[in-house]
Amino acid sequence: MAEAARGLGWHPFPGPAAVNSVRYQNRAACAYHGFCDRGGCHLDAKNSTAVSTIPRAQETGRLQVVTEAHVRRVEVDGEGRATGVSYLKGGEEYFQPADVVLLASYTYENVRLMLLSKSPAYPDGLSNNGGQVGRHYMTHATGAGVLALFPHRLNRWYGLPAQGVAIDDWAADNFDHSDLDFIGGGNLWVYSDRRPIAAARMPTFGRAPRWGSAWKAFVADNADRWTNCYIQKSTLPYEDNYLDLHPTVTDPLGDPVCRITADFKDNERRIATFVQDRMVEWFRAAGAVEIIRQGLGTMGPSTHAYGGTRMGDDPETNVVDRWGFSHEAPNLGILGASVMGTSGSHNPTLTAQALGWRTAAHLVENWSSIAG
Ligand SMILES: Cc1cc2nc3c(=O)[nH]c(=O)nc-3n(C[C@H](O)[C@H](O)[C@H](O)COP(=O)(O)OP(=O)(O)OC[C@H]3O[C@@H](n4cnc5c(N)ncnc54)[C@H](O)[C@@H]3O)c2cc1C
Ligand code: SF4
Question: What is the pTM assigned to this prediction?
Answer without folding.
Answer: 0.94
